[in-house]
């Protein structure tokens, strides 16, 4: 019996239609790739849907974290049979051994060459399971995660003793710092290099976004920002502090001798087969230089609109606006609240070969295939406003402007939105509706704003509780707040509610939280809101009109995440303000 084609299976499952399959086949002729890849790139199917269809087509079992199969068995020595380097380079995960047969999750079970290589490496027969690349790489991160405190081990002299080589071994031919290579040697210089490597390795393992290294009167402080909060880590010896700062400066190509002025630089490291960019800022303080290093681990960013935190109604409203042929969409929130990731996920969903998507950013943090991205350079005159004027000659359909900072940029955004383009941008305001008077303060005419504005949104990030979370019956004060602020209609039975709080385990490094999720305030601009904007842009009237259309505020979104067991009451209340 002939095997069914993948496209047929996806159509029968209701994932895609005939027209989408035809477009994907056409896309294949322009960009050589597998049909599943084409459907994912065009946004017609998710990686999971394609993998499940492949599982049906090939008769190969599907493994995911949801069905608990993509969960390597502990105590079988799998990490010794398949090394982390081999697993990461080939996107495979060893799952378990049974009757001297190794089960392996992989993205393409038809790859005979890879199956033979795994068989040779493991020295046993292989049973393949199919999974998505994103899920496989996440499980590799967890399964092979760095054990123990690397920084302590280096300071005790336990790291790198078995290696062979010298300092030059740590650099790749194109000048990247390779953290997978061991540094050996003696003296303060070698120990500083080892310590810098250990700090970077441990920071990446703990999903750190920023490293803070500074000197005070009597102590050295090393802190990691994980999921938005700073945590102390083992401080390096005081006598090595200047050497560490110098090492980071050398990597960033900064002036080692200059200690009086602030300096900014960057460097790229290679770790576990992926390149990670780092932005470095050194600032002189009264006790010595302070260093802050931003880790730009793009491999940890997933631009999946279903996984960033939208409630179903909010996602539908945002996508309805984002699929409009023209108009203005504004996303507000403080620095570091995930606005870039949200807009990237939206663009990733709506992009297709039929539309021209262009972005102006400062800096370009997440590179997206099929999107023309431009980094602004104010020092040579390439500002947001100047770039936007140039974009209009590039025949764009969708334009993302990283930030609306001034009147000139605001006017350029509005002009582009009025002349048949969809424009997405960000602003710094406390909530979504405050973006409207802010633009009017930038001398935007209210009637023009009313005619072009499609949607205003605000967002914050809450920390996601780890699987070790503890359930509890909420006290009366929390129940009262929930009933007052959740804007749920009807309310669930308050006597049967269960909330969760953090505990801590090795998986989350005893923090109780692992990762962050966005909460949103999404206001689709209705006709009534347009009339209010044209007249006086009165915030209380706009709030009433938004609530009438079914929108809810950030605190109400936060309570929905608490109710779903995603975050804790304490964390949610720490990032939102009550407006009731």
Secondary-structure blueprint:
Elements: H1 6-12, H2 18-30, H3 35-41, H4 47-58, H5 78-81, H6 84-90, E1 92-98, E2 101-106, H7 112-122, E3 125-130, H8 133-143, H9 150-155, E4 177-178, H10 187-205, E5 208-215, E6 220-226, E7 229-233, H11 241-251, E8 263-271, E9 274-285, E10 288-296, H12 312-322, E11 327-332, H13 339-350, E12 357-361, E13 372-375, H14 384-391, E14 398-401, H15 407-418, E15 422-427, H16 435-441, H17 446-452, E16 453-465, E17 470-472, H18 476-485, E18 499-501, E19 513-524, H19 527-535, H20 539-548, H21 554-563, H22 569-575
Parallel strand pairs: 2-3, 4-8, 11-15, 11-16, 12-13, 12-14, 14-15
Antiparallel strand pairs: 1-2, 5-6, 5-10, 6-7, 8-9, 9-10, 16-19, 17-18
């Amino acid at each position: 019996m002939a095997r069914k084609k993948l496209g047929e299976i996806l159509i029968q499952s209701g994932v895609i239609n005939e027209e989408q399959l035809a477009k994907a086949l056409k896309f294949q002729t322009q960009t050589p790739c597998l049909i599943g890849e084409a459907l994912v790139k065009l946004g017609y199917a998710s990686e999971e849907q394609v993998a499940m269809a492949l599982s049906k087509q090939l008769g190969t079992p599907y493994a995911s974290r949801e069905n608990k199969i993509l969960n390597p068995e502990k105590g079988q020595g799998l990490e010794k049979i398949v090394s982390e380097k081999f697993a990461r380079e080939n996107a495979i995960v060893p799952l378990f051994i049974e009757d001297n047969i190794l089960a392996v999750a992989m993205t393409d079970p038809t790859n005979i060459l890879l199956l033979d290589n795994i068989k040779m490496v493991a020295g046993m027969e292989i049973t393949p399971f199919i999974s998505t690349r994103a899920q496989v790489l996440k499980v590799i991160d967890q399964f092979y995660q760095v054990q123990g405190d690397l920084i302590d081990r280096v300071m005790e002299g336990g790291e790198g003793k078995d290696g062979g080589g010298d300092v030059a071994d740590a650099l790749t031919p194109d000048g990247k710092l390779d953290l997978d290579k061991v540094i050996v040697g003696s003296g303060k210089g070698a120990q500083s290099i080892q310590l810098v490597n250990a700090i970077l390795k441990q920071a990446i393992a703990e999903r750190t976004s920023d490293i803070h290294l500074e000197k005070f009167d009597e102590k050295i402080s090393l802190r990691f920002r994980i999921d938005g909060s700073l945590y102390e880590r083992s401080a390096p010896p005081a006598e090595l502090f200047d050497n560490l700062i110098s090492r980071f400066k050398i990597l960033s190509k900064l002036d080692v001798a200059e200690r009086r002025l602030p300096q900014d630089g960057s460097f790229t490291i290679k770790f576990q087969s992926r390149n990670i960019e780092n932005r470095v800022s050194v600032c002189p303080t009264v006790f010595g230089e302070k260093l802050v290093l931003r880790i730009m681990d793009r491999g940890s960013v997933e631009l999946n609109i279903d996984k960033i935190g939208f409630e179903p109604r909010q996602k539908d409203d945002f996508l309805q606006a984002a699929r409009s042929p023209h108009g203005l969409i504004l996303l507000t929130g403080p620095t570091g609240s995930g606005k870039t990731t949200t807009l990237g996920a939206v663009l990733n969903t709506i992009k297709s070969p039929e539309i021209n998507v262009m972005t102006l950013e400062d800096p370009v943090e997440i590179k997206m295939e099929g999107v023309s991205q431009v980094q602004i350079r104010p020092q040579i005159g390439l500002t947001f406003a100047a770039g936007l004027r140039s974009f209009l000659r590039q025949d764009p359909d969708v334009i993302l402007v990283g930030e609306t900072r001034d009147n000139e940029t605001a006017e350029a955004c509005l002009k582009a939105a009025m002349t048949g383009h969809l424009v997405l941008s960000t602003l710094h305001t406390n909530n979504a509706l405050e973006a409207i008077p802010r633009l009017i303060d930038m001398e935007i005419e209210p009637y023009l704003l009313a005619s072009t504005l499609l949607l205003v949104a605000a967002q914050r990030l809450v920390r996601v509780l780890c699987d070790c979370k503890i359930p509890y019956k909420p006290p009366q004060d929390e129940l009262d707040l929930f009933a007052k602020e959740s804007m749920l209609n009807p309310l669930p039975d308050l006597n049967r509610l269960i909330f969760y709080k953090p505990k801590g385990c090795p998986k989350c490094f005893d923090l109780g939280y692992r990762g962050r999720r966005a909460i949103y305030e999404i206001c689709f601009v209705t006709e009534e809101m347009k009339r209010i904007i044209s007249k006086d842009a009165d915030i209380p009237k706009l709030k009433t009109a938004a609530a009438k259309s079914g929108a809810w505020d950030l605190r109400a979104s936060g309570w929905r995440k608490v109710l779903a067991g995603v975050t804790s009451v304490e964390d949610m209340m720490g990032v939102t303000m009550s407006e009731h």
